[in-house]
User: Fold these one by one.
Assistant:
Number 1:
Amino acid sequence: MGEVFAWLEDSAFSEAIRGTAYLYPILESIHIIGIALLVGPAVAFDLRLLGLGRQALRVTTAANRLLPLSHVGFLIAAVTGIAMFLPGASVIADRGSAPWKLGLILLAGLNILIFHRLTYRGVARWDVGRSTPAAARFAAVVSLMTWSGVTVAGRLLAYT
Ligand code: HEM
């Protein structure tokens, strides 16, 4: 794996990122905008699953309006994150926070998959004015915890 990381670091793409003034901080800034676009709408949807606005706002309306924004945010965070990872691949991959960040992103993805494949199928029964099922509230708590954890692990990547 070390050879792969060394090869990635020496690639023309990594050279270009290292050699372009201010590109790294620009990527960091866009990464944070992506995180805001991902986590903001995701938290709003999680709060709806936990009961906020239950009488007025349909879960399906919240999902249709908010989740596409989260998808765009994730795409922005992923593209900029990979661009920041490549020039320092072996150092960053060696940090203790790296497996936490990756693991928590995978856990967040698994939680989304289970929610949409199983729990969300029955949304017509609890779309508005009703308590959401325990499985939906559980998914919301897991989402809040995993995205917070990814954010902490992401910040720690710069240190340890
Ligand atoms: C999906 C693929 C992602 C990759 C490959 C990635 C990779 C990275 C890298 C390489 C850094 C720079 C670390 C450094 O300064 O040395 C970083 C920073 C960071 N990442 Fe990510 N990231 C991804 C997604 C996310 C997501 C989804 C979140 C939050 C929900 C996140 C939160 C952060 C935070 C808070 C920072 C610190 C930003 C700063 O202080 O400038 N990352 N990430």
Number 2:
Amino acid sequence: MIVGQVIELKANNKFFTYCRKAFGVRRFAYNWCVAKFKKDYVAHLAAMDRYTRELAEYQKSPLQSTVAPVKPKLPTWQDYKKEFNAIRLEKYPFTYEVTKYASQQTFVNFGTSVKSYFENVKKRKKTKVKKNSKKRKAFFPKFKKKSYQHGSFYIGGDQVKLVTGKSCSKKLENQSSKQYMNIPNFGYVQLKEKLRFNGHINGVTISQRADRIYASFSIEITEEEYCRTHKAAVQNNTAAGIDLGLKSALMLSDGISIESPKPLKAKLRRLARLQRQLNRKQHPRAKGDKTKLSRNYIKHSRKVSKLYLSISNIRKDFSQKITSILANHYEYLCMEDLNVKGMMSNHKLARAISDVGFYNIKNNLIYKMEYKHRKLQEVDRFYASSKTCSKCGALKKDLTLRDRIYECPECGLTIDRDLNAAINLRQQIKNVGEAISELMPVELTALLSDLAINGIATSSVEAGIW
Ligand SMILES: [Zn+2]
């Protein structure tokens, strides 16, 4: 199984310069591909036109003497890579100043974006989307812009070397406990944490976010190593339904309401203010605008991205912690198959959803449950989990988003709206051999204390009048 770990690097100015250079090389190679592809694609379309005409003529009267026309082929990313490397030494010697992967991996990335472009075009044709509709827009590979705050490049596993202090250089001999990573054509850079896993390193992506440089490792580990590095999961045959709510971040069918992290709200307000201020600084506002990008704009955008980084870190932390805890305490989980994009189009919901990062929570839960050999079930997004009564199954059609309490007209059940949905979701867990049970009081206490240790705020909701 593959696990990841992101570690901040201790970057000095020299290393920053190296990284900026590597980002630049990557961007250069990518844009080189895009420019070439734009021309090739136009030529290819013309060639295809010619080919269909010639083929039709040939099929009408296939003479023995004429040869069947050959179908033209669009160059692939492998062709581009070959062509680039043939002229690389002579024309682009600066690409040799950084790791080879900075330019070479780009061709693979470019290949992926071309592939997804053609796939989207096909899908559009199949579903007969109107020409200018935003739905399933097929994105033709675009030129990449230079950014002061972001950038990344990849280093393949074969070039990654980790050493612990002592052996790497004389200068560092005293700091023997620290771990260092070898950066090709640069030297050793200190990791701010140690790599937790023993296994084969598939590759590392070095990326800049605001004023920090991170290395994100992708490591192939054995099941044994996974068990060694992860907390053992509780085996108790329990199940829960999770409702991703708006009032609280998550609601469990056991009546535990999990709040989203508090600092988020204040920071988001600050972010909005900073972004307004940024917009008032002098900068080109549209393509082709000749206004100069001011120093103040760059300086201020640094502030914005720093704050943004901190927000995204809070979100990630919350999402990782909560999903680990849930996967540890429940054997079966059930949640709605979220149509996050659809929900995002509803403005009021959009803020609440993006605040907590539902998308992240779901993705983390999927792989964590799988790694622990547990089952996560998703319920069809059209299942009315909120509108159905969890006691008698009656459907309340006129329930609006504003109704926080669910009152059943049939059986008189009065219950918190989100809890009602969570219980419904729990009841949707099917095809389980053994009977599933609710958390025992002891287990509930264990779960609550686990949440408390990780600094996740909870409140319990009364199960209502049954
Ligand atoms: Zn009812």
